Amino acid sequence: MELIPAHLLPLVLALISGILMAVQGSLNASLSKTTGLWEATFVVHVIGTAALIIIIFLLHAGRGDWRALTQAPWYSYLGGIASIFIIYLVAASIPSVGVANATTAIIIGQVLTAVIIDHFGAFGLERVPCGWNQLAGLALLAAGAKLLLK
């Protein structure tokens, strides 16, 4: 008997990612109180880069093809720049509004943007049209967010 059914594994991984995002934002906000926002953002990226070097080159976890980097569309590299602003903005917002409020706003922004990206098949991804059920889900999510925000 498998611990997690194969069809649920991607959702479990996403759930773990969400947990880690809330913890990461809290840790980054804590670091930024000591070092400053931009400095904390830099340090977090340096530590993440060092961890990736260990994971990919020492633990041989990477199975990709480095030669294919030149074949990726130019816009796919903008995720690195977006990461800088994500870490900065999360660390800037948490001390003012708290982890729960910041995370609620983040989730609303993420889901709304994800529905738009899916609907148009942006960034070369498969198109997943938005229907009434997604719009109703967004409305319920917004209503739930209103209840969560303090």
What characterizes the major β-sheet? none
What string, H for helix and E for strand, traces the elements in order?
HHHHH
Helix fraction by DSSP (H/I, runs of at least 4): over 70%
What is the mean predicted local confidence, pLDDT? 93
Number of helices: 5
Low-confidence stretches: none
What spatial form do the alpha-carbon principal axes imply? globular
Structural class: mainly alpha
Please give the number of β-strands: 0
Strand content: under 5%
Q: Report the radius of gyration as a whole number of Å.
A: 18 Å
How many angstroms separate the termini? 43 Å
Could you explain the architecture of this structure?
There is one protein chain. This protein starts with 8 loop residues before the first helix and ends with a helix. The radius of gyration is 18 Å and the shape is globular. The protein is mainly α and 150 residues long. The chain is built from five helices and no strands.
